[in-house]
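Board notes (copied after class):
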Amino acid sequence: MTRLFRGIFIVWVLFRHGLDELVLTSLNNPILSRLARIVAVGRNLQAPRGQRIRQALEDLGPIFVKFGQVLSTRRDLLPVDISDELAMLQDQVPPFPSEVAIGIIEKAFKKKVDDIFVSFDRQPIASASIAQVHFAVLKDRDGQQREVAVKVLRPGMATVIDKDLDLMRMMAGWVDDLSTDGKRLKPREVVAEFDKYLHDELDLVREASSAAQLRRNMADLDLVLIPEMFWDYCLPNVMVMERMKGVPINQVDRLRAAGVDIPKLARDGVTIFFTQVFRDGFFHADMHPGNIQVSVEPATFGRYISLDFGIIGTLTEVDKEYLAQNFTAFFRRDYKRVAELHIESGWVPKTTRVDELEAAIRSVCEPYFDRPLKEISLGLLLMRLFQTSRRFQVEIQPQLVLLQKTLLNIEGLGRQLDPELDLWNTAKPFLEKWMVNQIGPKKLIDQLRNEGPRYAKMLPELPRLLFDFLQTRGRDHSKELQALLIEQKRTNRLLSAIVYGGVGFVLGLLAMQILIRVRLF
């Protein structure tokens, strides 16, 4: 019944905002256009289409808002008016009352907000689907006043997310059971991945720890700034962090006027992403423009500022190596190796012919090389990739869903910053250098250095451990060992007899030949 009511509510919201009328009108069919005018009777549908879509997504809740955030970065796929409206979902979702936010803070810390902060801005500076942010001034342990940002979780989010996920599980089951592509698309596993990441986002302590890890990882790169966390003030529903000052990355004209090198900024974004993915296997997976700013402060001019670490992607060493090999082969246009990797990994059936898969990959990818982003039709590329994956029964990899989503964000950002960016040539040197480090002597030395303390501890214990093992195994298997020794002796005697007999036979033949020749001559 919960799923049924949620489904009815979704249909009602879509109908209330007139999205049915938008769909019918967009099909450019005279009959359907007439039907659209009929269904519009009695409803006020004068608002622009972009506003209606945005408001519908806001009313439907966090999962739908996140879908709109991803679409907002893809201005190559959507009309400008819809993209502009969806961009408001990045940090301009209607806030919940400040009194509610203050009540949550005071309940969490068991203090009045004025006793916690020197000052606290009642008006939120940003509001998203999961939480909203207020600026404040905090007195730290040293008595210094620090400008901070206070993130407060929206009340009741877990219930809304659980309802949507329950509905998605039901729909995933339908796709799995009824669709011929169901097993290959793994809809249940994909929904399970979303379930995990969305619930992780509801724990602000987890977000704070992810931010701290990223801050350590990126410390030596000098390309990105990540706020410091104030751990005395981090709880599951409230998080206090260093206030960051920057210009939103989608305000390109403002950045250009400040003197920021926009093409370099685009290249730096690619470097940051590939460093997080392939070097660290720990990456910011919610990189829409609302979460990315650029510093214009003299000391950190031109650096990225990352915000909102609720969704973090991770990759295993196996995933990292496999993806890096795929990307490297792809950038070298070694389509045969790409095909072999797909078969070796089990992404396609083992019976797949390498030459056929190689030809299919080449036909999809080759037209897009040596082109700037502005000349790449992502819609056509995705359609052809989907056709190829269906033909060769390529299985969806649920653990890579976040990476694929982040790639869409990165490419969308690249289009906004520098449409002339050559994504392939920008990423290729980084990946080739990474591959050399993975298989070269430096990697071996690093591994020996990391494992050295453990080896040093184990080495003195090895003689005793070996003696205990042999003694224990010897007692347990003495009879088996004796039987094996007897069998080995028998086998040795048999082999000796065969060898000696063979040698004697050969010598006998030689002697006969010698005697025959002596008699003849």
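Comment from the instructor: The CA atoms of residues 225 and 305 lie 5 Å apart. Residues 477-520 form one domain.
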